[in-house]
Specification:
- The strands form 4 sheets. An 8-stranded mixed β-sheet has the order 5-4-13-14-15-12-17-16. A 6-stranded mixed β-sheet has the order 7-2-1-11-19-18.
- 30% of the residues lie in helices and 26% in strands.
- With 393 residues, it is α/β, with parallel strands linked by helices.
- It has one domain: FAD/NAD(P)-binding domain (3-Layer(bba) Sandwich), CATH 3.50.50.60.
- The two termini are 16 Å apart.
Length: 393
C-alpha cells in the first residue's frame, strides 16, 4: 500500500491518537483534526485492563504506562449499606494469567502519553480548533476518497477518513446512520480528591465498588496514589440538561447515595469546593458496518459502550492497533478496511452487549447476589486474554 496516502483522523481523544500512532508506526503520516481549541489535562480516572495494556505496548508505550499508572493488587465489591466485602478479585497474578498488568491511572496522563508519542513522530500531526462539519463520499469505491468541509470554511479531499470522534461523531452522522443516542437511565458523577484528605480512612490498596439497588460508587487511586478518583452512578428517570455533561454538586451525589456506608460519604465530603463533574450516560447500538467507501469508524463513534466493564477506551485502543496492523499488511485500503472490520465486529458486539447487562447485575435490587461464581464479569468472560497485537487479522 502507498505510504503517502492522505489520511485524516477526526478526533484527538484516546482512540484517535492511538490510531494515528499506530498508522505512523506502520509508515503512514496521518493528520489528526480536533475541534477543541486546546488539548489539556482532561478527565479523571481510567482503567487500563490487560487487553488494552497489550495494545499500548504494541504502540511503544509499555514503559511509560508502567511508570505512570497504579497497579491495584485487589478489586473489592462491597455491600452499599454495610461496606461488607461481597466479592474480592485478586489481581496479583494478572501478568501470569493474562500476559499484562491491570492498571489504573489519570485519563489525562494516558492522553498526554499518546499525544507526545504522535507529536514526537510528526510535530505537525495534530491540529486543534479544526472541527469537521461535513463529509461527502466521492463514490462508494474506496479509491474515490472523501471530501471534507472544515469549520473554518476550508475544503479538502483525502484518501482515507477515520472517524474517532466519539459518541456524537460528526463522521458517523454524515456518512453512516444518524439516529440520536438514547439516555440509558443512569447519571454519573466523578471527582478527584487529594489522597491525604482521606488518609484517616485507611482505604488500603486497590479499588473498591460499593453496589446498591440502582446505584454504584467506585473509587481507586491515581497519580502514584496522590489522588483518589471516584465515580458514582445512579438510576434516574430522565436527563433534563441540554448538554450531556455539566458541573455537579456533591450534595446531589450524597442525596442519591444517602443510605451508602459512612466511608463513601467521608470521601464525598472531601471533594474540593463541593463540586464534581456530572453527565448522563447515553447509549446506542454498535454499527454492523464500520466502513463505507474510504471512510471508517473507530471507538465510540462505531460502538459507544456503557462503562460497567471499563472497556470503552480499551476497545478503542484495540481498534487502533488492529487497524494499524491491517494497514501495515494489506495491498490496498479496501482490503485493510475489510480485514479490520472482520477482526473487530464480533468481539466488540459481544462486549457491548455484556456491558449493557453488567450494570443491571451490579446495581440490581439484591447486592447480596454478588458472590464468587455468580457474577459475569471481565474475568469470567475472558476479555483480558485478548491481544490486539497478535490476534489473527
Amino acid at each position: 500500500m502507498k505510504s503517502d496516502l492522505r489520511i485524516v483522523v477526526v478526533g484527538a481523544g484516546i482512540g484517535g491518537l492511538a490510531a494515528a500512532l499506530g498508522l505512523q508506526r506502520a509508515g503512514f503520516r496521518p493528520r489528526v483534526l480536533e475541534q477543541s481549541g486546546t488539548l489539556g489535562d482532561v478527565g479523571a480516572g481510567i482503567s487500563i485492563s490487560p487487553n488494552a495494556a497489550k495494545g499500548l505496548g504494541f504502540l511503544g508505550l509499555g514503559r511509560e504506562l508502567a511508570a505512570a499508572a497504579c497497579i491495584p493488587p485487589i478489586q473489592v465489591t462491597r455491600h452499599f449499606r454495610t461496606g461488607k466485602p461481597l466479592l474480592t478479585i485478586d489481581r496479583s497474578d494478572t501478568v501470569e494469567r493474562y500476559g499484562e498488568q491491570y492498571y489504573q491511572m489519570h485519563r489525562g496522563d494516558l492522553h498526554a502519553m499518546l499525544l507526545g508519542a504522535v507529536r514526537a513522530n510528526d510535530p505537525s500531526a495534530v491540529q486543534v480548533a479544526a472541527g469537521v462539519c461535513g463529509a461527502t463520499l466521492d463514490g462508494e469505491s474506496v479509491d474515490a476518497g472523501v471530501r471534507l468541509e472544515l469549520a473554518d470554511g476550508s475544503r479538502e479531499h483525502v484518501d482515507l477518513l477515520l472517524g474517532a470522534d466519539g459518541l456524537r461523531s460528526s463522521v458517523r452522522a454524515a456518512l453512516f446512520e444518524d439516529s440520536p443516542p438514547e439516555f440509558s437511565g443512569y447519571v454519573a458523577w466523578r471527582g478527584l480528591i487529594p489522597a491525604a484528605a482521606v488518609a484517616h480512612l485507611a482505604l488500603g490498596e486497590g479499588s473498591s465498588v460499593s453496589a446498591g439497588p440502582g446505584r454504584l460508587f467506585v473509587r481507586y487511586p491515581v497519580r502514584a496514589g496522590r489522588l483518589l478518583n471516584y465515580v458514582a452512578f445512579a438510576r434516574t428517570g430522565r436527563w433534563e440538561a441540554e448538554s450531556w455533561s455539566q458541573p455537579g454538586s456533591i450534595d446531589e451525589v450524597r442525596e442519591a447515595l444517602h443510605d451508602f456506608h459512612a466511608q463513601v460519604h467521608e470521601i464525598l465530603r472531601a471533594t474540593p469546593d463541593g463540586r464534581c463533574h456530572k453527565w448522563g450516560l447515553f447509549a446506542r447500538p454498535p454499527l454492523a458496518r464500520w466502513a463505507r467507501g474510504a471512510a471508517v469508524l473507530l471507538g465510540d463513534a462505531a460502538h459507544p459502550m456503557m462503562p460497567w466493564f471499563g472497556q470503552g477506551a480499551a476497545c478503542a485502543i484495540e481498534d487502533a492497533v488492529v487497524l494499524a496492523r491491517c494497514f501495515a499488511d494489506s495491498p490496498g485500503i479496501e482490503a485493510a478496511l475489510q480485514r479490520y472490520q472482520d477482526a473487530r465486529v464480533e468481539r466488540v458486539t459481544m462486549i457491548h452487549r455484556e456491558s449493557l447487562l453488567g450494570g443491571e447485575r451490579l446495581a440490581g435490587s439484591d447486592p447480596d447476589s454478588i458472590a464468587p461464581g455468580r457474577v459475569r464479569n471481565e474475568d469470567s468472560l475472558g476479555l483480558f486474554s485478548y491481544d490486539p497485537a497478535t490476534v489473527p487479522v
